[in-house]
Amino acid sequence: MTDQPHPHPSSGPTPDLFTWEFATNPYPTYAWLREHAPVHKTRLPSGVEAWLVTRYVDAKHALADPRLSKNPAHHDEPAHAKGKTGIPGERKAELMTHLLNIDPPDHTRLRRLVSKAFTPRRVAEFAPRVQELTNDLIDRFADDGSADLIHDFAFPLPIYAICDLLGVPREDQDDFRDWAGMMIRHGGGPRGGVARSVKKMRSYLADLIHRKREALSDTPTPHPDGNLPGTPGRNPSGTPTPPPGEDLLSGLIRASDHGEHLTENEAAAMAFILLFAGFETTVNLIGNGTYALLTHPEQRARLEKSLAAGERDLLETGVEELLRYDGPVELATWRFATRPLTLGGQDIAAGDPVLVVLAAADRDPERFADPDVLDLGRRDNQHLGYGHGIHYCLGAPLARLEGQTALATLLTRLPDLQLAGDPADLRWRGGLIMRGLRTLPVEFTPERR
To answer: Is residue 21 assigned to a domain?
Structure first.
């Protein structure tokens, strides 16, 4: 498949949004919006009316504008939209006080508590574990000659990795995988399935926090790094999870017990959002990225040649380009105007929801040359795939590590990997925020070990 600019509708009525056809390929519609209605008010499938921001310059400004709050309290919800501007079930489960729903100074305080767990040094220390887990997952299907790369690989990899970081015991990690799977399966359908998973996860986290607090009370010596965890635990293939105090959740608990004023609800909400936001983005990065490589053979061959030569530059720029070209997060999470403002020539009223369309901004020809072309070597690539400003994705270094490791290992171990079936038969998950495939069936020569 060669790169061709996507055709898009000419001027006329606004194209239909949020149909299955739109979910399959939203980029022509986003091109129309950028040209004709760059800040566009629409009624979402949930019934909520929100502004969609599609041009790069407006999107980057909105992501960092302090007048756009993350706190849903600034949105005066009509009855039909009650509770539909966030993650289903998070209100009833008392999980609202996380980084995606708060502003400074609380945001500053909570982000500081976990930011040291995602520094380049900490992520580099975690790299061998990610490689080990990647190999283990590929081992499970490498002899079969076929797999569903979403179910068998892209989905479990970040789940087990984030569970290790949080300190979820090995014997409980499959429960997390089941709850996360329910969130993905019902992401575009009835909200009840997601809400039930959130409730189960909240109940489990409350119990885990209680158990870890008891364990920490028997471990009086603080970790040398202070409030935050040290080396994360091993994956579920047989190596142990962290001892008390050596994981992120224990670090949050220790902070709450040593003057940082972190409540149990805040600790549970932080763990929840790190899991919720930290796994599906990486699932989609790996799934969308693999699909893009399999449907762009020249770019794939270019990357394989680079990997065979032991070079990493193209892998690193390539993952950034995959994030720009068809990234895992289609729309940034909710923002609400705290007072009247003008954005992209449109007057936005206080309380109005604003959704920044990252997928549209990252294909803006005013910012990116040949934006509909996949170029793994693209250097001028300040994409917005992980946001911008104070809410820039905290886990971006870990997601990049997982994406680079996953793609490099797949291409190296399964060099003749190809799609099984017609790409037109693939289905994308319906939903508002994330963009990802339901399945990715592939074929390859079975690995002989």
So the answer is: no
Q: Give the CATH number of the domain where residue 139 resides.
A: 1.10.630.10
Do 268 and 202 contact (CB within 8 A), yes or no?
A: yes
Q: What tens-digit pLDDT sequence spans the chain (449 residues)?
A: 334 444 444 456 778 888 889 999 999 999 999 999 999 999 998 888 999 999 999 999 999 999 999 988 877 765 545 555 656 555 555 566 677 788 898 888 888 888 877 888 888 889 999 999 999 999 999 999 999 999 999 999 999 998 888 888 888 888 888 887 776 665 444 444 667 777 888 888 888 888 888 887 765 444 433 333 333 333 344 444 445 557 888 877 877 665 566 677 777 788 877 877 778 899 999 999 999 999 999 999 999 999 999 999 999 999 999 999 999 999 999 999 999 999 999 999 999 999 999 999 999 999 999 999 999 999 999 999 999 999 999 889 999 999 999 999 999 999 999 999 899 999 998 778 889 999 999 999 998 76
> Which amino acid would we find at residue 177?
R
Give the residue numbers spanning the domain of 355.
26-443
Q: Are 267 and 256 in contact (CB under 8 A)?
A: yes
CA distance 306 to 301: 9
52 falls within a domain: yes
Nearest to 391 by CA among 40, 59, 52: 59
Q: How many structural domains is the chain composed of?
A: 1
Residue 255 lies in a domain: yes
pTM: 0.86
Residue 140 located in a structural domain: yes
